[in-house]
From TrEMBL:
One of its GO terms (molecular function) is enzyme regulator activity. Residues 239-420 form the PCI domain. This is PCI domain-containing protein. The keyword tRNA processing does not apply. It comes from Arachis hypogaea (Peanut). It comes from the Eukaryota. Signal peptide: none annotated. GO terms for cellular component: proteasome regulatory particle, lid subcomplex.
Length: 487
């Protein structure tokens, strides 16, 4: 008896470990079954659900689990099995535990579907990237892309779009993004010919990211303008497209369109995508400052973004005050951050806005002021500050930034009396922009509505109509009886 109890106690730890490991393996088997069902019934939504479930299991993936899953779904000795198993390190202890659990649960069944094979590539690629084995991830992703080029099945498109993304991501992590640009263009052409719209969306965004990574904004705009456009299939890809479009428009000085794209990308992005929303807000803040607007304080106080947006908050404060010296100090203080965010060139453009804001404050405060005092207040550090102040003031008057005139004889800037803003078109323009925003949001909401298929074609038969009317009469009678009982 005592020996039996001791043997049971000793066997308990190994049983707990082996029962804990197969849970992830069992989930992967269920996902494989889901992909198989979706492939046979040609239901893409099932395969999309399988990919979402895989991303949720990503942190639980281990070498032993993936190795056992490959043995379960792929034929041992096949080309795909040999290639993928080479990327997985061998762990004998875990392998024995998982094998024992697998044989106890279910006898292995081999799947020969191309969807399953492509899914195995995705699973191994996720594992390699998480383990920071980037060179092996590059080799694995390249092998999967070669396989995808020969597959023309709509049920593969969802998994293929994920593989395209991680293919580009693995090369970006190793700094070799330029090597795959030609391959991405070829893949985009293939996806267009096959009418793979999800693949086109993903590959277009990857190409735009590739061009923008090397500051090739003209090439990115040419590609974007020539690429076919259609209704967005993925919200994430649409958000990325809007972000890249906003960056291109900003560099091309089209600030109004850039602001709309960046704010829309930040609004549509999922709450969990905090890093993406931070980047959108950084660029949106710069664009609004370049437009002469001052972003609200609440933009910088969003949950989880206060620290990341702190440099841009201080920069906004300097632009709002119009203090050129403070602007220089902040630009020098956070130069590393701005260079990392690739917004340094845009911040150089803001110097003119800071001077203009300071000049506007001066024109409001003084009815007449000498150009020497203007140069002193603007803190112009140059060889001839008075001449610089004169040219700055004359340009601001010509652009309509200030309502004043120059007295060249006496060296003065004479401000005119400020009129009533409600006598101008400013309120009308403000209301027009708000109404246009609301109308656009309403149109997007209407386009996003989903209806059951063929509801407008189905007609109710006479028998069904009589049954429905009878049920409605019985329900009304029942409600009336309940009301009588209450009284």
């Amino acid at each position: 008896m005592t020996q039996d109890l001791e043997m049971k106690d000793r066997s308990t730890p190994s049983n707990s470990v082996s029962s804990a490991v197969p849970s992830t393996l069992q989930h992967l088997k269920e996902i494989a079954s889901l992909i198989e069902t979706g492939s046979y019934s040609k239901e893409v939504r099932r395969i999309a659900r399988a990919v979402r479930l895989t991303i949720a299991l990503r942190r639980k993936l281990t070498a032993s689990v993936i190795s056992s899953f490959l043995d379960y779904v792929l034929t041992t000795g096949s080309e795909a099995h040999a290639k993928l198993s080479a990327y997985i390190p061998k762990d004998e202890d875990h392998e024995m535990e998982v094998d024992a659990a697998t044989s106890a649960i279910q006898t292995p069944a081999k799947h020969l579907l191309p969807e399953i094979e492509i899914y195995c590539y995705l699973l191994v690629l996720l594992f390699l990237i998480d383990q920071k084995r980037y060179n092996e991830a590059k080799a694995c992703s390249s092998a999967s892309i070669v396989l995808l080029k020969n597959l023309n099945r709509r049920t593969v498109d969802v998994i293929a779009s994920r593989l395209y993304f991680y293919y580009s991501y693995s090369y970006e992590l190793t700094g070799d993004l330029a090597e795959i640009r030609g391959n991405l263009l070829a893949l985009h052409r293939i996806a267009t010919l096959r009418h793979d719209e999800l693949g086109q969306e993903t590959l277009l965004n990857l190409l735009l990211r590739n061009y923008l990574h090397y500051n090739l904004y003209d090439q990115a705009e040419k590609l974007r303008s020539k690429a076919p456009r259609f209704e967005a299939h993925s919200n994430q890809q649409f958000c990325r497209y809007l972000f890249y479009l906003g960056k291109i428009r900003t560099i091309q000085l089209e600030y109004t369109d850039a602001k709309e794209s960046l704010l829309q990308a930040a609004r549509k992005a999922p709450v969990a995508a905090r890093g993406f929303r931070i980047q959108c807000n950084k660029w949106a803040v710069i664009v609004r400052l370049l437009l002469g607007e001052i972003p609200e304080r609440t933009v910088f106080m969003q949950r989880g973004m206060e620290k990341a947006l702190r440099p841009y908050f201080e920069l906004t404060n300097a632009v709002r005050i119009g203090d050129l010296e403070l602007f220089r100090n902040i630009a020098d203080k956070f130069a590393t951050t701005f260079s990392t965010d690739r917004t340094h060139n845009l911040i150089v453009r803001l110097r003119h806005n800071v001077i203009r804001t300071g000049l506007r404050n001066i024109s409001i405060s003084y009815s007449r002021i000498s150009l020497a005092d203007v140069a002193k207040k603007l803190r112009l550090n140059s060889a001839n500050p008075v001449a610089d102040a004169e040219s700055i003031v004359s340009k601001a008057i010509r652009d309509g930034a200030i309502d004043a005139r120059l007295d060249h004889a006496n060296g003065w800037m004479v401000s005119k009396e400020t009129g009533d803003i409600y006598s101008t078109n400013e309120p009308q323009l403000a209301f027009n922009s708000r109404i246009a925003f609301c109308l656009n949001m309403h149109n997007e909401a209407v386009r996003a509505l989903r209806f059951p298929p063929n509801t407008h074609k189905e007609k109710e038969s006479a028998e069904k109509r009589r049954e429905r009317q009878q049920q409605e009469q019985e329900l009304a009678k029942h409600i009336a009886e309940e009301d009588d009982d209450e009284f």
